[in-house]
Amino acid sequence: MKKLGLLLTALIAIAAIAPAQKTGIIADVLKKSAEEKVARMQEMIGFDDNKARQLNELEFTFLLDVQKVENCCLCNRKKRIEKLKTAREEGLQKLLPRDEYMKYHSIENELLRENNPLWLR
Fold first, then answer.
1. Rounded Cα gap, residues 2 and 20, in angstroms
2. Which among 12, 55, 76, 121 is least surrounded, fewest beta carbons within 10 Å?
């Protein structure tokens, strides 16, 4: 009987830890994705390191929140994601001057490309 109790306790502990590890892995991937995106944008647009750090936080928080919404069963996903997008856009507008924001937005939505003759004039 003790062995069965110990085995059940171990299985419950493993089951409780497994989602936490999955979330940690996902968070690491999202953080790396945000860092790569901001580094690419910084290279193209040329904003300073302080703005890059703040943008990293903003992008990572946005991606993490979207991931949480996607895993929510009882949420209106579309509506919540739209709210998150709006909040992110407002954060970008507060962080970046208008010209940098327009470039950031245009690159992100693939309106500007390197082979375009109007590339970041």
1. 28
2. 121
